[in-house]
Amino acid sequence: MIPPGPTRRALVGGAFCLAASPASAAAPSWAADSLQAAAARTGVAYGSAVNGVTLRQDPAYGRVLAREAGILVSENAMKLTYAWRAPGSLDFTYADEVVAFAEGNRQRMRGHTLVWHEGLPAWVAARLAAGEGEAFLRRWIGAMAGRYRGRIEAWDVVNEICGPQDGRADGLRRTPWLEVLGPGYVDLAFRIQQAVAPGAAGVWNENDLELDADWIDQRRAMVLRTLEGMRRRGVPIRRLGLQGHLYARHPLNQDKLRRFLKEVAGLGLAIEVTEFDVNDRTYPAELGARDRAVSDLARRFLDVVLDEAAVLNVLTWDITNRNTWLNTNPERRRADGLTQRALPLDERLARTPLWSAMHRAFSAAPDHSKARAALRGA
User: Fold this and answer.
1) Which residues does 110 contact at the CB level (< 8 Å), separation at least 6?
2) What CATH number does the domain containing 113 carry?
3) 30: how many CB neighbours lie within 10 A of its CB?
4) Domain total for the chain?
5) CB proximity list for 32: less than 8 A, separation 6 or greater
6) What is the pTM of this model?
7) CA–CA gap between residue 114 and residue 80 (Å, rounded)
8) Residues 40-64: pLDDT tens digits?
């Protein structure tokens, strides 16, 4: 059973209070010296993923999100594996709270993610295998995207579908969705989302498109080919999401990245950086050296990204180092056990050198406000 409509409570300044509607708030909550304020000058929104448990338990976390960000995305609460754990009911509790928080602070909201190969509950896999793939996809997207119709700027409709390593001619990753519905599942998901929530931009969110390696070149080529085909078929995709997970294992080739962004923009698509962070696993333990390396890589990436007028949003994957997934993922965490310096705020929620590098990048970026406003509304 699907619970009743979203709560209209909002977490403002770290405490829940009633909010009649997003429009009722007097002014945005972000500070004049915030990342959002610096980014907004050029028409970009800075934002962050939100850990719903931390938001509920730690008022200080809510305050820094309200202070720094103009757009939010729920880290996990809108994923199938969290929202629909058992066949009988969907649980929107944490998703409702994040949306209410954003509305109460006059922040935009992204939706993440409708179709992903990871995190499929066992009962869903059984439904797909039983031939109920399309019916289930329609029910799921209808429930999640429909619940927040008119309240989400953009939905990550498909997530991490690029897979040249799997050997298919079309380059798609082999997933349960592909196995059951064939390659047409991608187009179908976008068409369902657009029918359910036409005001939200449909996004293909993809990883490992930013840095420089032969296998990343293959991924970029696959993405461009696939986007061209989707545009020819009239698929209602409006944006490409670059996750923006950076790490020193591969260099950043600014010319290649700039060219790729221009090719995507040339297809008439907007671009978002959706999950930005910097993995410092191979950087020195010494704090000053680490912070300098992280800040340099981030600044060089953002200088290219922000120069492209088609880029609308830059979101970090959480805002504080104490919440980064890089500290818990066995393949990503540091061998010395030190907390990664991956995000704009440290464990005590103080601004880091990375925050300063991001602020300088936003402040120095060219003003593409008019072009971005047109794309945001397209």
Assistant:
1) 47, 71, 72, 73, 152, 153, 154, 155, 156, 272, 274, 313, 315
2) 3.20.20.80
3) 22
4) 1
5) none
6) 0.93
7) 7
8) 999 999 999 999 999 999 999 999 9
